[in-house]
Amino acid sequence: MDVLDLPALRRRRSRRQAIVAVVLIAIVLGASVVAISLGASGITPARVFATLAGFGDRGDEFVVFRLRLPRIVTAIVAGFAFGLAGSLFQSVLSNPLASPDILGVSAGASFAAVFVLLVASGSGFAVSAGAFVGAFVIAALMWVLAWRGGLVGYRFVLIGVGLGYVVTAALGWMITRADVREVSQALVWMVGGVGGASWSDIGIAAGIVLVSSVAIIALGRRLPVLALGDDAARGLGVRGAVSRGALLLAAVALVAAATALAGPIAFVALISAPIARALLRDGGAALLPSALIGSALVVVADLVGQHVLADSVPVGIVTGVIGAPYLLWLIATSNRKGADG
């Protein structure tokens, strides 16, 4: 490739990124309007826009602002956080399986949150705080156990998978020992859903996602250098271990915020980045497209679960049905490549 072609390639990539981002935002907004319009108290899209603009009647305002809009905003924020976190994990660790729900970060957040629900009889902020503690404890354990003079990606992934199994087993044991009425509440949360958050919960989660995203924007330009390896990064003046740690810390904060808000919605973090890279037709991190795809996945999955399927189905089950075949395909193709290599 001629070096003179590089500016044109960058312009084409930037133009494609902008087109993909606009299309994804349109999908999120369109699905959101449809979701707000549907339901027992049907509201036409025109009335939805009028209500959002402050010209709706009291009945429409109650339905939109109290019942349906919090659900939509929860889906957008949680999906954005999961999608961005998944892209970061996969880029920093250079492994398509390096997703917080595969590595045990989501499981750690779930365990701590359910512990607060069942053992400490907590709710609201206490559950959210528990999710944060659990996510960061698991991430810290993975970092310590995987460190061998540097962060080794495959060790991090294997240790994360192992810790995830341990935490999931402990979570199952805790559920079997708890009161049936409390367990039902915990199980609803563990499946992953976007219907129970208040505006204050959404505001806290959105604030954490915003701060984490700003940190990622500041550090994200180091990702291409980190992809060259720590030795090459050091030669270019980038401290590989520090940069990877800071990016993973921001990603864990995203996972904790999203899990505290909506529960461990399955596979969104795993599949968002591959879809984004396929749309952009390159192997870059695709951070913003991954985040927008995460939002689109959760909004559309909730729309399908609430209004397309016969019974109301939690969004985590719908995303699980979508993501599980991809995970099986990813494992199968990885095994095939290993056998061929």
TrEMBL record:
Cited Pfam families: FecCD
GO biological process: siderophore-iron import into cell
Keywords: Cell membrane, Membrane, Transmembrane, Transmembrane helix, Transport
Record's bilayer topology term: Multi-pass membrane protein
One GO molecular-function entry: transmembrane transporter activity
Superkingdom assignment: Bacteria
Cellular compartments annotated: Cell membrane
Membrane-spanning residues: 18-40, 72-90, 102-120, 127-146, 152-175, 187-220, 246-271, 283-301, 313-332
Keyword Transmembrane: yes
Keyword Plastid: no
Cellular-component GO terms for this entry: plasma membrane
Similarity section: Belongs to the binding-protein-dependent transport system permease family. FecCD subfamily.
Record protein name field: Iron ABC transporter permease
Species this protein is from: Agromyces atrinae
